[in-house]
Write a structure and sequence with these properties.
This protein has five helices and no strands. It is about 50% helix and about 0% strand. By secondary structure, the chain is mainly α.
């Protein structure tokens, strides 16, 4: 499941920015392959955080996850020419993903598998059968 699409990126950041960042030849048209790779990288990064708390793939994409995927993919498209605003959005995305991972923040409508079905484990042990006292005399 993909969390964002090329159209999500163009809606948020514009066709011109996406063309300049994805088409490394002349920046005149969007390179769909480069965008798809950046989106796949964003999905994998998001999954690495969500997997600690949620069953993947998610049944649907929450709006917040779509936004995070766009911010992460955009950051990846900038490569080493990243602006401070793009870097900050990326760092904010990772900070929120860490909160999802730790359980500090939860995705509304999704069951937290890290706590779902937790049960108390009870155990008991028989008294020791062998001890220094009852083995005295055996040598």
């Amino acid at each position: 499941m993909t969390y964002a699409s090329q159209s999500d990126l163009t809606e948020r950041f514009g066709v011109d920015e996406l063309a300049q960042r994805s088409n490394r030849l002349d920046g005149s048209a969007i390179d769909a392959g480069v965008v798809a790779r950046a989106l796949a990288d964003a999905d994998a990064e998001i999954d690495s955080y969500l997997a600690t708390r949620y069953a993947l793939p998610l049944a649907s994409t929450p709006t917040v996850i779509n936004r995070l995927a766009c911010d992460i993919a955009r950051y990846r498209l900038y490569d080493d020419g990243v602006t401070e605003a793009v870097r900050q959005r990326f760092e904010d995305a990772l900070a929120l993903l860490k909160k999802f991972s730790s359980g500090e923040v939860r995705l509304a409508g999704f069951e937290d598998v890290a706590t779902a079905g937790t049960a108390m484990v009870h155990h008991s042990f028989e008294p020791r059968q062998m001890s220094a006292d009852n083995l005295r005399g055996f040598a």
